[in-house]
Amino acid sequence: MAKDRVYNFSAGPGALPLSVLERAASEMTNYGGTGMSVMEMSHRSKAFIKIFDDTKSKFRSILSVPEDYEILFLQGGASSQFSMVPLNLISKTGKASYAVTGNFSNLAMKEAKKFGEISIAATSEATGHDRIPCQSELNVDKDASYFYYCSNNTIYGTEWQYVPETGTTLVCDMSSNILSKPVDVSKYGIIFAGAQKNMAPAGLTVVIIRKDLAGNELPYTPLMMNYKTMIDKDSMYNTPPCYNIYMLGLVLDWLMEQGGVEGMEKIKSVKAGVLYDAIDNSRLFKAHAQPGSRSDMNVTFRTESAELDKKFIAEATEAGFVNVKGHRLTEGMRASVYNAVPMEAAEKLADFIREFDKNN
Amino acid sequence: MAKDRVYNFSAGPGALPLSVLERAASEMTNYGGTGMSVMEMSHRSKAFIKIFDDTKSKFRSILSVPEDYEILFLQGGASSQFSMVPLNLISKTGKASYAVTGNFSNLAMKEAKKFGEISIAATSEATGHDRIPCQSELNVDKDASYFYYCSNNTIYGTEWQYVPETGTTLVCDMSSNILSKPVDVSKYGIIFAGAQKNMAPAGLTVVIIRKDLAGNELPYTPLMMNYKTMIDKDSMYNTPPCYNIYMLGLVLDWLMEQGGVEGMEKIKSVKAGVLYDAIDNSRLFKAHAQPGSRSDMNVTFRTESAELDKKFIAEATEAGFVNVKGHRLTEGMRASVYNAVPMEAAEKLADFIREFDKNN
What we know:
- Two copies of one chain form a homodimer.
- Chain A is α/β, with parallel strands linked by helices and 360 residues long.
- Helices cover 34% and strands 16% of the residues of chain A.
- The first copy, chain A, is built from nine helices and 14 strands.
- In chain A, strands 2-10-9-8-5-3-4 form a seven-stranded mixed β-sheet, sandwiched between helices.
- In chain A, helix 3 packs parallel to helix 4, helix 6 crosses helix 7 and helix 7 runs parallel beside helix 9.
- At the A-B interface, helix 1, helix 3 and helix 6 of A face helix 1, helix 3 and helix 6 of B.
């Protein structure tokens, strides 16, 4: 563990690479000889435009985003996209299909009902969202303007291991697993992600949109929720969240040093695997998610007893493993091992799980 | 000038106090012994909730916000409020009145037309937005659900010197002069402000709303644009822009050291006055805004010649006075002297104006 730092398993906002934070601190009062902080720069200044353009082009390169897609740096979190997606896409047929595999896809589905006719293509609610439906279970409305899913369920610790084939425009909330592995962007219409788990501090939402999808918004679409405006203005209709974009740029530099998303893909399954192994081989602990649906980002687990869970959380926290308490919807424990969580943190927590299992 | 720092007259994002930036840098990798950055904290963690609550209560105290008003920390900038205000308030009568005194009130007025019947209570367009209409010029629709104005026009450099009496709910965009002077909040229904001029880094929008106004939103209001939801969830329906809120807290600490908004009010007119004096007493320069309408935040001025303006801007930049170029809508020059711009910066720029006037 780095001096004075804890092992941070927060589900989001999540850990950031220490080297990124150190660099941000060192540039705080004078960025690159400009005599000011990035926070103090006009978003129209040469210095900031360079940060903006560089960050966007690094992102495009790392995720191999095709040229007919725009990368937008917006605000409002994934929850704003819950409205923005139907407001901009549903006019085609007035209908859309949603897969409900957790809390956030459920909220997205409910929000979309304000704007059109929504059908549920699949739901994992009956088994406490412990699995991802397989391709053959998806019942997508043939008139759907788009099919919507959330690729990783932060709360339940499940993750889609395949890209659904649906015959319509694919929309995906990748908030909690973006940049953890390569993605074939060309299969999607829209990918969006809140930054605060795998990318940057909270307050930035990255949207990847196939440009031809924009321009069909409903008439009462708020101006800041119009993809067309954001594409036309290159995310600068108004002042964007400048410092978050700068931080994303630093994180992307760090990511490239780790071998990009290909490097991350190799690391992530080992890192999560260390924890799932400790859990599966214990007497006391049980993973929430079924094998084949397990998330490499959020490892959810529990004992048979709420009392023992509480003891585990208290002792883990005491030992410097912070934010391992599960979400109130699932209870139990959750260890989020996003890109910036070091392998060492997962290994030490696995040791701690084994030790606790022996002593209780 | 502090070592390695420039005099930054940016219209926004604007200057921040150096001591605030230094403190943020010093706490970047380990905030208050938590072993993590504020950027890495769960927004539901004890440490962050304390930052959030403290910041809100400092804000309430500094601006004397009455208890029947909520203070919201949102995203999306003032431009999102352009939609949020009519979406939430216009249902009362379906009508609203706007004063158009610059670019942003004009955009707000146009956006509101999506949601109801909008009348223009006054406009300063005929004279290039060089003045603020007086009370007797305001022609407010008696059926208006609310009256909307922008208290300081960043681009044109004009500022309302009075609070309009309109007989309806008052809504005010204070993005560029909030916290520069005391405000009688009880006269308003809603006050909002993007943070990036006088408060914090871009990406945070502060809304002060009389709580009884919420709950009357139009049926297609996006969930993140519903004031009621934001009030009920204390701005945490989803992850708020945590780091910006932390920075706002640091800026508010600094503001209290300067004597709060009462202290700022004394300083600001002297600071802007130094510049207006130099301009008014010059041969070459002319202020854009008429006396009685002049902004203490954004001092707009020009010479008779675009060529000479260009020369002034180039030489000023060379001398370390950064971001003095006017907005493309007005051209000429603009020196923004927000709270965090030190008196010394205004004095030195005034010296430079006098020197330039003598030599050209």
